[in-house]
Design goal:
heterodimer, A: 133 residues, mainly alpha, Cytochrome Bc1 Complex, Chain D, domain 2, 6 helices, B: 205 residues, alpha+beta, Glutaredoxin, 11 strands
């Protein structure tokens, strides 16, 4: 009885560790690659760098967002993504792998958006689409 | 490399001095000093005139503030500047516009940071304090040359994010153009300490 309790406890604990560890990974990656501009709490920098809390906009563009992250948002004529604010650019980022991108998005999602999970296949699909543009 | 090393040594030494003096009431005067037989002479930030985001001429010796807060940045900087700016905003919010502080943020990007772009940045970031000046040099080298007097470095470097490699200090000087304190502009805790130093400077008579 006691042992089974212990096992259940251990199981729950490890499961819950598993689910938070991807948020931790995402939090770390967000702080490293995004927070300088978008802010540690995704609060942005005034209207120069946008906050990342416009859930309606994120929901509308969720298929494009992984590609924005990889290929950047740029006012130049030849760029893939022009964005909506047009005062400064978001640089491309070829370091982040699909798993990293999905971790970052799920971390933000958990904290701010409350949308459905950003699955790695969904991220890869977006990146394939972005590459083909 | 040698220069970077000596800069680093210099900064470390300053940091140690600064720590040693932390408990004193008065902030130390930083930088090199010399002796003319009767007085100790402290190095001063050389006077300059530049243009700010409102196309005003700003001359250092004409600024009346008791405290002067300086940093180096450029508007398209992807890495450290946004953090530095967030902390400049924090300092500004802490003291509000009535405090006797002038802020000078020097743009290192002569090519892209025109007056109108600096103006757009000022407004979009949400500054309202008229004593915050985003500075454009009169030529591409003026601000880079000034940087060394603020213990800062700036070199063009194509491999660096945004094309310019520079240090993210926020620096505090007094109305006699002596450096009195500084903090790593990307580090909130260090900036909190600087805020205390600014208070000390404002309370000096």
């Amino acid at each position: 009885m006691k042992i089974s309790h212990f096992l259940i406890f251990f199981f729950v604990l490890s499961a819950c560790n598993m689910s938070t560890s991807s948020f931790k990974e995402g939090a770390f990656m967000f702080d490293t690659h995004c927070a300088s501009c978008h802010g540690h709490e995704a609060e942005g920098l005034g209207q120069w760098y946008p906050p990342l809390k416009d859930t309606a906009y994120i929901r509308l563009h969720r298929r494009e967002i992984p590609s924005w992250i990889r290929y950047g948002i740029n006012r130049d004529k030849g760029s893939r993504f022009k964005g909506r604010f047009h005062q400064t650019d978001m640089p491309e980022n070829h370091i982040l792998q699909p798993a990293d991108i999905s971790n970052i998005l799920n971390y933000l999602n958990e904290k701010f958006w409350n949308l459905s999970h950003f699955d790695i296949n969904e991220v890869e699909e977006s990146l394939n689409w972005g590459r083909s543009l | 490399m040698k220069r970077i090393c000596s800069n680093f040594l210099f900064s470390t030494l300053l940091l140690i001095t600064l720590n040693a003096c932390r408990h004193n009431e008065k902030l130390p005067i930083l930088g090199q000093r010399s002796w003319n037989g009767t007085d100790t002479l402290y190095s001063q930030i050389p006077d300059f005139t530049m243009t700010d985001q409102d196309n005003q001429k700003i001359q250092l010796t004409l600024l009346k503030g008791k405290a002067n807060v300086a940093c180096f940045f450029f508007t398209s900087c992807p890495t450290i500047c946004p953090k530095v700016m967030r902390n400049i905003m924090r300092i500004n919010q802490h003291f509000n516009s009535a405090a006797d502080i002038d802020y000078l943020c020097f743009s290192l990007d002569f090519k892209r940071d025109s007056i109108s772009r600096l103006n757009e940045y000022y407004n979009k970031v949400g500054f309202t304090n008229p004593r915050i000046h985003l500075m454009r040099g009169n030529d591409p080298d003026q601000i880079k040359n000034l940087a060394s007097y603020y213990m800062s470095t700036a070199v063009e470097d194509d491999s660096a994010p945004g094309g310019i490699n520079h240090s993210g200090w926020i620096l505090l000087s007094d109305h006699q153009r002596h450096l009195r304190s500084y903090a790593l502009g990307t580090d909130e805790k260090d900036v909190d300490r600087l805020i205390i130093d600014i208070e000390k400077l404002l309370n000096e008579n």
